[in-house]
Amino acid sequence: TYEVRDTKISVGGIKSADGSAVVKIGNTTVQCGIRYKVTTPSVSAPFDGHVDVNVHLLPVCSTKYESSRPGEHSYVMGELLNRLTEKAKLIDNSELCIVEGKAVYVLQVDIICLNDDGNIIDASILALSAALRDTGLPTETRVEENGEIVQIGHDKTVKLKSQKLVTPLTFGIFDEKIISDPNEEESKIMDGFITVVLDEKKNVVLTKKHKGSGITYDHLQTCIEVCSKRIEEV
After folding, report:
1. How far is CA 104 from the centre of its chain?
2. What is the DSSP string of 203-231?
3. Which residue, 190, 200, 103, is CA-closest to 142?
4. Mean pLDDT across 13-25
5. Helix, strand or coil for residue 67?
6. Sign of the torsion angle spanned by Cα atoms 153, 157, 160, 165
7. Which of 14, 100, 120, 149 is the most buried (most CB within 10 A)?
8. Which residues of 201-210 are buried (b: 16+ CB within 10 A; e: fewer)?
9. In 88-143, where does DSSP find H-type helix?
């Protein structure tokens, strides 16, 4: 079946963050908070800041996460979201430039799973995308002679201009059938999973196979078609 659980996106609820969002897909709940910091850019990209995503999967969201310290699932999810951010160009990194070759912003992203009832990948991607749209950067900064960057207040902020909207949809594969948005109970019997991410023009920006054997071309095309319809819903 290709049904997706009710999806709710709330933006801007974390007052201590520079950008934030909470996403619920059914009972699965993910919170994303973004804070900026100033750093020196690399020599090879003097105009570019970057986004650094960390994922926190803790025992509070599911008993399958046994430790309060980041485990393999957290690292794998973090790598996937960082790769998506770069590959899909969710933002233009040059917008994070303060002074060429001297100072850029780094957006530090923390994604925390509050309840895992299956398909936290989709919830995390939607939360990241929504929080980036909510992120505000200072309109005024000053560079001192010693190179120190002074941020003049936090009252005046400006949103990032170039942001690409993406829509993910994860499918479970069971007995050569595909099921969209599997919950936790359904996930336990799946042979494997595949996540498809499309941009607002319905171009494929990422596909990721999780576990299991390969997927047929026809199944992949079906996943892309179903995900394209999801764009209008989200």
Report:
1. 21
2. -EEEEEEESSS---HHHHHHHHHHHHHHH
3. 103
4. 94
5. coil
6. positive
7. 120
8. eeeebbebee
9. 120-134
The burial class, CB within 10 Å (0-12 / 13-18 / 19+), for 141 is: middle
Three-state DSSP at 73 gives helix
Euclidean distance between CA atoms 182 and 88, whole angstroms: 24
DSSP 8-state secondary structure symbol assigned to residue 96: G
Range 65-74, long-range pairs (CB < 8 A, 24+ positions): 65/116
Residue type, 94: S
pLDDT digits 0-9 by tens, 217-232 = 899 999 999 999 999 8
Q: HEC string of 146-206?
A: CCCEEECCCCCEEECCCECCEEEEEEEEECCEEEECCCHHHHCCCCEEEEEEEECCCCEEE
Cβ contact 30:23 at 8 Å: yes
For 38, how many CA atoms within 13 A lie in the half-sphere containing its CB?
17
- Residue 194 in tokens: 């595949």
pLDDT band per the 50, 70, 90 thresholds, residue 38? confident
| Count of all residues that appear for the chain in the document | 234
Cα 71 to Cα 85: distance, rounded to the nearest angstrom: 21
Q: What is the pTM of this model?
A: 0.92
Q: Using CB atoms within 10 Å of the CB of residue 170, give its burial: 0 to 12 exposed, 13 to 18 middle, 19+ buried.
A: buried
